[in-house]
Specification:
mainly beta, Porin, two-stranded antiparallel sheet, 2 helices, about 55% strand
Length: about 300
């Protein structure tokens, strides 16, 4: 089984050499829903984990993206095997995108404290372009009237995730390859991230982390994050994104199983005059819990 898994990863790597253009969603609270950015996150909480998030980007700008994501993941009876599913609806301008992905992660227990996970995901994506919403300057323009409004593609992704109770790190390609052909090509993002959790005293802990998004032929984008936890129940965070965005996070662990979080993005760049803020909310519920689980669950 391990041999087949390695071969599959190699195949996915070569498939990623050329992929086709489409919008990829951005998230501010990925640290609370790791399945969004890395299939290797599957089962890392040790229980069935359900997370739903909604992001309204660039509030006040009518054609801006709105993204709804539902993620489920859980370990199987054999704790080395973990599965998950990710459902995404993304609306931006005249385009409506729906994505369904199934995930599998294989865990290797390096020692009593450190776990290494290899993840893969695969599924389908449907994209519909509502050209009838456009105002066409030239009547009967073939660029729009002859274009296919709906397309369906097969997509894959992969990642690696290593973590302990006090630190975490990962690398992922959430989308490797798509069969959608629309005449344009681009590269998908490579994500590299990591962080640590430091206990200040009996009440406070601090968790700095860093996420690097790299797309070929583009400058890397960095997310520098700091989360402050109080009594492992309340928290606040601040992030700086090198795309000239400041992010504020608030989160509250209602009980051992239920968590709610909110984030606001403040754009300080060139678009700040048109659409300066984005809002994101996340709800997480874990069906049962283990004694050694992190609380709150702020690791990727």
């Amino acid at each position: 089984m391990k041999f087949i898994f390695k071969i599959f990863l190699i195949v996915l790597f070569f498939l990623s050499k050329q992929i086709f253009a489409q919008h990829e969603s951005g998230y501010s609270q990925y640290m609370f829903n790791g399945l969004i950015i890395n299939p290797a996150y599957c089962g890392s909480s040790g229980v069935l984990d359900a997370t739903i998030s909604y992001k309204n980007q660039w509030t006040g700008f009518g054609v801006a993206p709105k993204t709804l994501v539902l993620g489920l993941n859980s370990p199987l009876k054999n704790e080395s095997s973990n599965v998950g599913i990710l459902l995404l609806n993304d609306q931006f301008a005249i385009t409506n995108k729906n994505r369904v992905l199934g995930s599998y992660a294989y865990r290797i227990k390096l020692n009593d404290k450190i776990n290494l996970r290899f993840g893969i995901q695969a599924g389908f994506e449907s994209i519909r372009n509502n050209y009838n919403q456009l105002t066409i300057i030239e009547s009967g323009d073939a660029s729009f009237s002859a274009s296919k409004q709906t397309s369906t593609s097969f997509i894959t992704g992969t990642g690696v995730y290593i973590h302990s109770e006090k630190w975490f790190s990962g690398i992922s390609l959430p989308v490797l390859y798509s069969t959608v052909i629309n005449g344009n090509t681009m590269y998908k993002p490579l994500l590299i991230y990591g962080g640590i959790k430091n206990k200040i005293n009996d009440d406070f802990s601090i968790q700095p982390s860093l996420l690097i998004k790299y797309i070929k032929n583009s400058p890397p984008q960095l997310d520098i994050n700091v989360l402050l936890l109080y009594q492992n129940k309340y928290g606040a965070g601040l992030s700086y994104r090198t795309s000239k965005t400041i992010v504020g996070n608030l989160f509250y662990q209602i009980n051992q199983q239920f968590y709610v979080g909110y984030a606001v993005d403040i754009n300080t760049g060139k678009l700040s005059g048109l659409a300066s803020t984005s809002h994101e909310i996340i709800l997480k519920y874990q069906f049962g819990y283990l004694k050694n689980l992190q609380n709150p669950k702020t690791f990727y």
